[in-house]
Design brief:
Blueprint (H helix, E strand, L loop, with lengths): L2 H29 L2 E7 L19 H8 L2 E7 L5 H10 L28 H7 L3 E7 L46 E5 L6 E4 L2 E7 L15 E4 H22 L5 E6 L20 H23 L6 E7 L49 H4 E7 L8 E3 L3 E2 L2 H10 L15 H4 L9 E5 L5 E5 L2 E4 L9 E4 L15 H16 L10
Parallel strand pairs: 1-8, 1-9, 2-11, 2-12, 3-4, 3-8, 6-7
Antiparallel strand pairs: 2-10, 4-5, 5-6, 9-10, 13-14, 14-15, 15-16
Helix pairs in contact: 5-6
Length: 505
């Protein structure tokens, strides 16, 4: 065969294989489901009607989502405050394995993720997804300054000179774009106020508690009132879905919708004020539900619902014990002293339902989260599962969905719970570590929950959650051997490198 003819045949053969491989890859991507994760901020276990029949807050869209999917009754955000729970969701690892052992990130602190640590959006981007996030990051980022020193207000939540030496024209680093998001619009930390578009600072949140008065050269910065922020990020999320559907129909998308709601200050839109019996807080939850409805309606209008996984959860329990139309919450702050106590009222809306404790506590009211998952034709509808689930499990579960092989040193505390979401009664996660905003740990294993004593007092706690979901009867004195067993199990996980190898959870 002449050489020229051989080269031509070889080239055509190679092109055919490339074309075939490309078509198979496109077909595979087209079959992969779109993924939307909605993470509310400080929403309680008892806020939704689907979780609490006595809720005074209308949540028709989330209740409809629950009726069309599976509702998990025993899901956990492993820490009772924001940053660490988001870390667990994004990395599949317990936050005590990060450099930030307790509490939430303060102003301008760097990324909680270690160098080279795989994140959920990175995993999905590696799997062919277009990734986008809108709302709240609060997992750290690095900001440039004009004097090469740390940003003014670093490590604080409130500083009179916040951002006084920032160079607002330079991009941030170590934020959402550097951790797997191709599109991002939102703030890194609410107390910093700065809103970032990809890597550029473009706006600031007008906040009741914090300000950017000391920051220089900010004439180009748009100021967005807090009560307009939910509308802004919802609109941008919808536009992303519409644009992606129009341009990249063969490529799946991952959308992380992380509203700053119903976190204090309760910046409720005027049209929602006074619309519920749950007071200003209830109005805010209802407003959130309405905007989530707009997002879900977009899927319907584009015929994307059947091929889209939607997951809904909260990053921790509610800050409030009780809310009511007659209770003035306009001055509610992050301080526990600013919120009304349940025992002072005969009736009301109880954001955490029958659970004990609130945001920040290691009790169920701080760490148990509503979790709803919908994927028509794959997840059953109108179904409840009582199996233990944690936000860290989202990573391994979605890895299974998209066919991604997680490296053994990534997502080390994440379990593939796809069978549970598919309605199978499999006991995959037998335990979960929970943590207060400080350094108090607990372990839920089966029906039992053990809580370590505080540093000052010998006040270990043991509860049977099957019989006592409100954690009202401490059984520690009755079952010391069981408490010791759970304590040892907890210590093994806390001091081990992983919880899904070497230890039977």
């Amino acid at each position: 065969m002449p050489k020229t003819r051989f080269n031509l045949v070889g080239t055509l053969f190679l092109m055919g294989w490339v074309l075939l491989f490309s078509c198979k890859k496109k077909e595979s991507l087209k079959q992969s489901p779109n993924i939307i994760i909605i993470l509310a901020d400080d929403l309680g276990y008892g806020d939704l009607g689907s979780y609490n029949e006595n809720s005074l807050v209308p949540t028709p869209n989330l209740d409809k989502l629950a009726s069309e999917g599976i509702l998990l009754t025993d899901a956990y955000c492993p820490v009772a405050v924001c940053s660490p729970s988001r870390f667990a969701l994004m990395t599949g690892s317990y936050p005590f394995r990060s450099w930030k052992k307790t509490g939430v990130l303060a102003n301008y602190e760097p990324s909680m993720m270690a160098e080279g640590q795989l994140t959920l959006p990175q995993m999905l981007q590696n799997s062919g997804y277009t990734t986008a996030g809108y709302g709240k990051w609060h997992l750290g980022a690095s900001f440039s300054t004009m004097d090469d020193k740390r940003p003014a207000g670093y490590g604080k939540f409130k500083a009179g000179d916040n951002g006084a030496n920032l160079d607002l024209n330079l991009p941030i680093s170590g934020g959402p774009i550097d951790h797997g998001f191709q599109h991002w619009y939102g703030f890194s930390c609410a107390s910093e106020c700065w809103i970032i578009d990809k890597k550029q600072i473009v706006a600031a949140l007008q906040h009741e508690f914090y300000n950017i008065d000391s920051a220089p050269n900010k004439d180009h910065i748009e100021i967005i009132p807090s009560n307009q922020y939910l509308d802004r990020i919802t609109t941008k999320s919808i536009q992303f879905i519409q644009r992606h559907h129009q341009i990249n129909e063969d490529r799946p998308f991952f959308l992380y919708f992380a509203p700053y709601v119903p976190h204090v200050p309760l910046a409720v839109g005027k049209e929602f004020q006074g619309t519920t019996k749950g007071g200003l807080y209830g109005d805010y939850v209802n407003e959130l539900d309405t905007y989530i409805g707009k997002l879900l309606d977009t899927l319907d209008s584009l015929d994307l619902t059947d091929n889209t996984i939607v997951m809904f959860a909260s990053d921790n329990g509610s800050h409030f014990e009780v809310t009511l139309s007659d209770i003035d919450l306009t001055r509610a702050t992050n301080s526990a002293k600013s919120i009304p106590k349940k025992e002072h009222y005969d009736t009301g809306h109880y954001p955490n339902g029958a659970l004990r404790g609130t945001k920040g506590t290691v009790w169920e009211g701080g760490v148990r989260t509503p979790f709803i998952a919908r994927w028509p034709g794959h997840f059953p509808n109108s179904t409840k599962s009582h199996r233990i689930f944690a936000l860290n499990d989202v990573m391994a579960t979605l890895a299974s969905v998209v066919g991604y092989n997680l490296p053994s040193d990534m997502g080390v505390d994440s379990y593939n719970q796809l069978p549970v979401l598919e309605g199978k009664d499999e006991n995959i996660r037998k335990s979960v570590v929970v943590q207060s905003s400080g350094n108090r740990y607990g372990l839920r294993k089966g029906d039992w929950k053990y809580i370590e004593p505080t540093d000052k007092d010998d006040n270990s706690e043991l509860y049977n959650l099957k019989d006592d979901i409100s954690e009202s009867k401490n059984r520690f004195a009755e079952r010391p051997e069981l408490a010791r067993e759970l304590k040892e199990h907890l210590e093994t996980i806390l001091h081990g490198k992983t919880s899904n190898t070497g230890v039977n959870p």
